[in-house]
Write a structure and sequence with these properties.
It is a single chain. By secondary structure, this protein is α+β, with helices and mostly antiparallel strands. The chain has two domains: 23-96, Alpha-Beta Plaits (2-Layer Sandwich); 98-161, Alpha-Beta Plaits, CATH 3.30.70.20. The protein contains five helices and six strands; from the N terminus they run H-H-H-E-E-H-E-H-E-E-E. The chain has helices at residues 6-19, 34-39, 46-50, 78-82, 117-121; strands spanning 56-58, 64-66, 98-102, 127-130, 133-137, 157-161. The strands form three sheets. A two-stranded antiparallel ribbon has the order 1-2. A hairpin with a 2-residue loop joins strand 4 (127-130) and strand 5 (133-137).
């Protein structure tokens, strides 16, 4: 059996990831993610220009992506209202289709430092603390708006494409 050095092992996996298409977060109000690549490149990118929080950007493929490092989605519906191609069409969708993850190893509150930045930012009461420590995200209450992401001083909260 052949053994691999640590650097060979890491290179194997990073090369595989580089070859894969990067998954991205899409704006809410859509139930068909495949339509973005088909329809949006021919659009003028109105959703990015109208976004009040300026979190919608037009990616390399000419499709809208959400950058939660800039802020969170308030579900103001401006992108929905301006979408001429009917890509954004769900009138009552107040949810970003994504996974949320709290990294306990870097979270200040999980590491004996008083910090409640994420809880203070969350308007949906989706982050619960055990006293002043150990926050947990109530995934049933969290709509993945991302408002907690940029306020975390350690970058311990991440939201990923499904």
């Amino acid at each position: 059996m052949k053994s691999y050095s640590r650097s060979e092992f890491i290179k194997f996996f990073t090369d595989r990831v580089k070859g894969e298409k990067k998954a991205c977060l899409r704006p809410p109000y859509n139930d068909n993610p495949e339509i973005f690549e088909k329809v949006c490149p021919s659009c003028a990118g109105l959703c990015a220009r109208i976004c009040e929080e300026q979190i919608i950007e037009i990616g390399e493929e000419g499709t809208p992506v959400i950058n939660l490092k800039k802020g969170g989605c308030t579900f103001c519906r401006a992108c929905l209202d301006v979408c001429e191609k009917d890509v954004l069409n769900l009138k009552e969708d107040r949810f970003i289709k994504a996974k949320i993850h709290l990294n306990f190893t870097t979270c200040l509150a999980w590491n004996e430092t008083v910090c409640q930045s994420c809880k203070e930012a969350c308007t949906y009461d989706a982050i619960l603390f055990d006293g002043l420590k150990k926050p947990n995200i109530r995934k049933d209450e969290c709509n993945r708006c991302g408002i907690c992401v940029p306020v975390c001083p350690e970058g311990s909260i991440n939201i990923f494409h499904l």
